[in-house]
Amino acid sequence: MKIVACYSNKGGVGKTATSVNLAHALARAGRRVLLCDLDPQGASGFYFRVKPSKKLGDDRFFTDVKRFTDAIRGSDFDGLDILPANMSFRDFDIFLSRMKNSRSRLKKALKAAQGDYDVVLLDCPPNISALSENVFRASDAVVVPVIPTTLSERTFEQLVDFFRDEKLPRKKIVAFFSMAQATKKLHAETAERLRKAHPKRFVDVTVPFSTEVEKMGVHRAPVATFAKSSPATEAYDALWRAVAERL
Amino acid sequence: MSETFITDGAGGAALRRVGVGKARVVPRGDEERAPATLHDTFDGALAAAGLLLVAAGDGLWLVGLPEGPVHQADAEPGFVQDMNEGPVTAALRPRVPALRRLIPVADATLARQAMALIDDEGKTLVRVAVCAVSTGHGSATVLTLSPLRGYDRPHARLRAALDPLGDPEAALTALRPPAMRYTAKPPVDIAADMPARKAATLLARTHLSVARANERGIVADHDTEFLHDYRVNLRKVRSVVSLFTGVWSEKDTTRLKDRFRALMAPTGPLRDLDVHLLDRDRYMEMVPEALRPGIVALFDDFAKERAAAQAALARHLESDDYAREAAALEALLASAKRLKPGPAADVPVAPFAQDLIWSRYRKVCKRAARIDDATPDEEVHALRIHCKKLRYLMEFFAPVFGPSEVKPLVKALKGLQDTLGAFNDAAVQQDALRAVLERLPRRGAARIEIATSIGALLTVLAQRQAEGRARVASSFAAFDSPETRAGFADLFHRGKEAA
């Protein structure tokens, strides 16, 4: 079981869209995926039409294995389950460390219908905190969507600095360009500069800015379900392959 | 875990009306509809297991398993052991007897439609696979419910809503044309106070009709069970005629005996060859490797003979003479009054049956008790015949004495019969092989090879016969237990002990 965090220290970069579409692409490729909705604002569960459970606000949540596993909901897609969470993060550290410990009750309880999950995907809240550090430590890969703008460039640098300062393995960072607009000269220039500065951090994936991705809110479904051959769908497929390569 | 429900043809429509709180059932995607052929064994082994096997343009569909419809592209229905490996074949294997062929039952339409129970947000709570099979005779809908993780409650409520939908057995039976609604052992309603002649007529008529239902399958040569069932049922008719003494006039009884013996006689050669050929693997195992080519040659001959015997029997069964005679016998048994009554015609069934069974039981015990290592084989054979007659009588009259009361006694008897059967089979097979030896050409390498192999088989069979023979005494001792004795006396000698 691999843990993949979808993370951005800046809001509005398409992080939740990334979580939803990446989870869906992995499941379509035959992986068993558990998508944990940890971002109360992102609400990846919303895109899968999963109603938030009343139980989930409870602090005891992450310490109670049964409550945790009972809260898991099957999505409409084979091999993709959702943990619709809207919780406080007091015990999230414990949750993470237990998830990594193969002998823990949590790890044992955390099984998909057909066996272990191949990938646990965390849709993380957008801030750098003590929590984030634990997420980074527990994860096998940290997927970071970056809009090729000057502002995003700076936040990305901050993230890389944070990894360096905290002696976190920077190779966990899997960055890609999100919401990129081919017509904008600035986007192209920033992307080129960032690739040059962080050749090992960026994978060769660019998810274009697209109305299809925006329409996910209307369809309440991953983009591949209603726009099968759109550039965005292809980009998310390329993204899961790039992530899988790093795992 | 998913599970499957069978409902009648209206099941799919009823599903759309099911409401579970705010959730409702909606179709997901288009219905896929294809012409197909429904298959099953003649005796409906799949239907009895709640399954439908449908051959469509894209291969085989097996519908009704708890996990939902199973598909295999490259398989043709037949004997399961001859079918290509795959998910359908694997699911069929434990459910279809090896001796039965899967044959076309009816032309059908297969309609598949994915549906889902969704909540007010459009989220799927339970997946429902709908598979409807309709023939010109009826239709059945098979619903497979697959709950999604975390939605146990709506699943339970949908289940509960579906529970009262239709009678699965009736729906599956309705798919079959009347000629394919075969029951090898239909219940015969015999009441304790029914006159013996009426009971005899009812039993004979029922078994004759079961036998006749197999005619077409024998002619088509689908599998060997048709002939087997045909013969078993004619033998039962003959047992009724010969064992129910005094229900018909002596003259009529003799005529019936002769006519039914004649009706069955042409089936003997084919059945003997079937039995040999079905035993092929066992024969092969009986002899050492070096002698197996001889067995192969022998069985090639058997197979050729069988083809000729089958063709001959098929011609006979399709002849006007046969049709006339079978119809005439049916007419004789159509009413209890067609045949002249004998002295026991009006005796109520219960005392009539008690007398028959009790005296047969006494005969079995007397003869069995006499058997030791020195007893001639003929007496062992005679005991076997008495046991068989006793068994038939007990089964014929089980409804009168209560099937659950009779069952343990039949089971005890069966133990003894198995031993006697092993003894007899070995003897019969030896006779048959000796007959083959005599028919072999006078010279030639093939003759020597076959003769050597038969020699080896005869040795093994003689040994088996001796083993069976040695077990008779102990098998009878097991049958002759105080409980079984008390059971026979209680059921079949009630109130007569004192007299």
TrEMBL record, chain A:
<dbReference type="InterPro" id="IPR027417">
    <property type="entry name" value="P-loop_NTPase"/>
</dbReference>
<dbReference type="Pfam" id="PF13614">
    <property type="entry name" value="AAA_31"/>
</dbReference>
<feature type="domain" description="AAA">
    <location>
        <begin position="1"/>
        <end position="164"/>
    </location>
</feature>
<dbReference type="InterPro" id="IPR050678">
    <property type="entry name" value="DNA_Partitioning_ATPase"/>
</dbReference>
<dbReference type="InterPro" id="IPR025669">
    <property type="entry name" value="AAA_dom"/>
</dbReference>
<protein>
    <submittedName>
        <fullName>Cobyrinic acid a,c-diamide synthase</fullName>
    </submittedName>
</protein>
